Amino acid sequence: MELFTNLGLGFSVALSFQNLFYCFMGVILGTLIGVLPGIGPVATIAMLLPVTFTLNPTSALIMLAGIYYGAQYGGSTTSILVNLPGESASVVTCIDGYQMARQGRAGAALGISALGSFFAGCVSTVIIALFAPPLAEVALKFGPAEYFSLMVLGLIAATVLASGSLVKAIAMVILGLLLGLVGTDVNSGVARFAFGVSELSDGIGFVSVAMGVFGFAEIINNLEQKGSREVFTKKVTGLLPTWQDIKDCTPSVLRGTALGSFLGILPGGGALLASFAAYTLEKKVSKNSANFGKGAIQGVAAPESANNAGAQTSFIPLLTLGIPSNPVMALMIGAMMIQGIAPGPQVMTERPQLFWGMIASMWIGNLMLVVLNLPLIGMWIKLLTIPYRMLYPAILLFCCVGVYSLSNSPFDVMQTAVFGVVGYIWVKLECEPAPLILGFILGPLMEENLRRAMLLSRGDPLVFFQRPISLTMLLIAAFLLVIVVAPTVRKKRAEAFVEA
Amino acid sequence: MKITNGKDFWAGLMFIGFGLGFMIVANNYAMGTAVRMGPAYFPTVLGGMLAVLGAAVLFRAFVSKIPHPLAVFPFRLWFVVGGLVLGVFAFYTQVPRDGGEVEKIAHELLSGVAIGLLFAAFGPRSLWVILVSVVVFGYMLKPLGLVLAAGLLIFGSSWGGHEFKPKEVTFLFVALAIFSVFAFVKGLGLPMNIWPAFLE
């Protein structure tokens, strides 16, 4: 079996002392920022991007991946104990998790979410190993027309699956594409939209956009809304769920894992969407759905499994197609480019150590996370007692050091601050920044592929409809748009986001 | 016609502004043909699409059933005007590379005030206090070194929050300064000086 030789190679890479260390650092950091409300994986990975420059590519990606799925574990702790999502994908865990904590069952909730996440993590690791290679093979046959259509599909899917207004989300994607075009045009050498500023002719820094919009703007918004929180910091006992709990939860964990794995692969998917969908599904299929919202353990198990599964399978489009499905994956592309690796299907054949090492590290990382989260839970709870006024100056400092060290220039810091203001305004205007980030990273790629496709077809735009794969993807994109605009689905979509 | 949804109103205007802005600036570059697209082609098409979508959002502001007041966030028009005037002035009075130190510093201060005013035009007090501290950190890191610049950032941004407890912030500063010196400079080997440039 080729799969086993590949996984064998992966484990031999992931189990090297150096990679184990960076995997450990990644999951520790991920848990830490997952537990702390007000800082998410996007800002953290953005912060660490400059640092990864000094590492070898495999270790760097192993660590960054660990942050993302580690945050899914940590986020549940805060949701359950504080009724505040430590991480956006844990929003729904608050609903039943916090109720369980109030009934004195915090231990069981924490235990089941860690075990459910571990199970989901194992399954989705296998899914990546199974499905990524055939997908990459298909992707190798892609021409520029297929790539262009794929990006259209990805961007449309990202807007459809976003909450809030569809028109605004599409507008944000286009704005992102445009901002991504700032800088020197590869074909003509013209510095576009640089206004004579030499720093801008290299393009707007991706880290600056991500950190300004997700890091700084987030802090300002958090400071704007005051509010006290009640923390259950008393000793949490009974971490191991009872037999009855396990019996109750097994189907939920299975459903959550399946749904999460599937939604993670979709463009625009990932942990956040997976957890929302899993909670809604669980409520629908449950025999006593009245218990939901009052401390149903299924309401914790399903979304927590789903968000971890989704977080991991969202690596599939990244590793096989080189297309990010959410802002975290966009940052991973940034990390790969810093290392001089062009993301795409060739990564697997040209750098098998990197590809399989990363997959194997995910399983190892999940194992570490169970150990970190169950016995050491007390340590993470202590962290929650740190007031926010002590946290945000520290977050700011780390962000600033990270941005500054990108090119050792104050200009990047300035640029990030500007995006902090803009990000604040966007939040106030209910314009979601996540689609913008995707557009931003895809802007230059999309233009390049459009140009090539049009050159090959001698200026005939019909090429996108004549090639079967390209046509299929455009049709799916159109279909997605149509069903969202359709009145009945529109109502359902609004309901789903309100309910969850 | 009455604006019911203030958020859509401003968002629509913003999208139209960005869309038209990109189109106008792209006008300076070569358009090319569909076969050989010039640098202006893609941005012009996208800018047009953005402006159209912006118009749709703007239209929705008048028919929306979700009411939002027009004042979505604190906004100070005079700060924008002042910031823009100073910014334009600073842009045209740039000191040449071989200019005097005093003039350079004066020019940087002028630019700084312009930017600070533009930041202060939007949002709550914490927004501009924090972001100005961030920018100050960026520009002071080299001349003052990591420790003192971090101090400016930590004290500045803490002052931007709701509560400012001097003792607590001092403790935070000492802890973070020690941590960042060891983690960033010694551990990761980032090229930054720890103390002011003239002391090292």
How is this fold's topology laid out?
The complex is a heterodimer of chains A (500) and B (200).
Chain A (H helix, E strand, L loop, with lengths): L1 H13 L2 H19 L5 H12 L4 H26 L8 H12 L3 H35 L3 H18 L4 H16 L1 E2 L6 E2 L13 H19 L18 H23 L5 H15 L12 H16 L1 H7 L5 H12 L7 H5 L1 H22 L3 H7 L4 H20 L2 H19 L4 H24 L6 H4 L1 H18 L1 H13 L1
Antiparallel strand pairs in A: 1-2
Chain B lengths: L5 H21 L14 H23 L13 H16 L8 H20 L4 H20 L1 H14 L6 H22 L13
Helix pairs in contact in B: 1-2, 3-4, 4-5, 5-6, 6-7
Structure description:
The complex is a heterodimer of chains A (500) and B (200). Chain A has 500 residues and is mostly helical. Chain A has one domain. Chain A is built from 23 helices and 2 strands. The termini of chain B are far apart. At the A-B interface, helix 8, helix 9, helix 18, helix 19 and helix 20 of A face helix 1, helix 2, helix 4, helix 5 and helix 6 of B.
Low-confidence stretches of chain B: none
Helix content of chain A: over 70%
Distance between the termini of chain B: 66 Å
Gross geometry of chain A: globular
User: Major sheet of chain A: size, sense and barrel closure?
Assistant: 2 strands, antiparallel
Structural class of chain A: mainly alpha
| β-sheet strand percentage of chain B | under 5%
Determine the fraction of residues in helical runs of chain B and give it as a percent range. 55-70%
Instruction: Characterize the quaternary organization of these chains.
Output: heterodimer
Number of helices of chain B: 7
Shape of chain B: extended
Q: Taking all residues together, what is the mean pLDDT of chain A?
A: 83
| Average pLDDT of chain B | 86
The overall number of domains of chain B is: 3
Number of strand elements of chain B: 0
